Amino acid sequence: MLLLCFAVVLLAAVLLSALAHRTILSTAALFLVAGFVLGEDTTGVLHLQADSSIVAQLAELALFAVLFTDGMRVGWADLRSAWRLPGRALGWGLPLTLLVTAVLAHYVAGLGWAESLLIGAILAPTDPVFAAALVGNDKVPARLRHLLNVESGVNDGLALPFVVVLLAIAGGSDDLHLGELGTELAVGLAIGVLVPLAAIALERTRFFAASAAYAPLNGVAIGLLVLALGKATHGNLFLAAFAAGITVATFGPRERAAFEHFGENVAELLKLAALLVFGALISVEFLADISWAGWVFAVLAIVVARPLALWVSFLRSGLGLREQAAAMWFGPKGFASVVYGLLVLESGIAAADEVFHLVALTIVISILAHSSTDVVVARAFDDTGETPHWHGVIRRIRRVRRTTTVEPERVPPALGSGASGAEGKGDAR
After folding, report:
1. What are the Cα distances from residue 374, in Å, to 21, 231, 357, 378, 392?
2. 81 with 269: CB under 8 angstroms?
């Protein structure tokens, strides 16, 4: 039944994709709403609960695929040459977003400090997948797209240690397992770098070569190997995924080009499937369980926490006001927050249910708000869209008049009455 529902909604999304590309209609919101309608507590078509194994596994797999393909968009040279702005967003913006969210959770939602810091760590990561029209629009300044892409790829892995430590504190554990966390990060980074390097080196030898038909599957094989080794060694999957993507982009441009479009389609399918499943967990009863203070917190976590944190982070950064405003607004909560929220639910801490409700509500509002405004904000960077059509017409008329009045003797007799010829040259210029 889940497969059937996904196929029907996917077909609807494909048929509406052209309309969604130029309007506020969002395919991400479509799958989220479809999941809400089909969920067990709404129409009962899909029988899914938050503790269902497919929920956590699909969300984790979707996040891995998204980070792997995101990493392929930037190479190490790009990161090194343009690290200043992402460094500000990660070094200052991430911890400040965590702290501001925690303060809101404590004073608005009434959670304890341990649970407030935990929910701050869960909601701190961003996911520009839900702002695709902004990140993928060439008219948006490259440094802004680079900033959002790098920030979202790295902050998922950086937030995980905070989530695990704060989860242990909220559960009253005396052992924070800091050594294990450091090992997970190191192992994940090593797998993400070494596996792609080995695969690319093998293809460069005279014994191996990928055919044109199988070339796109090279990236799939690398990604699956990184995922399997990460799970087997308990390395950080998300850091491994992003590091693997960057490594392929840096050392395997041929492999990157072959995998790019195919990989993005695979990641998109997994993302949409995870959204459908996540939406099925939300119902009217689920939302009704959240107090008015929880709703206020969810809104403030989106419109106050990240904007305030990034405003402080980008002081004297040289980033334009319009770019800064876009970066402050586009901090959508996505798969990392879903996965971390499910970790809390599985942990069994006293406030697990309340924390998950607040996290889920914030994610839902974020997806609806950010994925519906990305096209609008992206158009604000279209300089040609800011110039009225009549401005070009008047400019061409003035150019024709100047040509015919200042230098009439240079116009051949055959063309003397052909204003259209001058106007055509004006168009060409």
Report:
1. 10, 34, 26, 6, 28
2. no
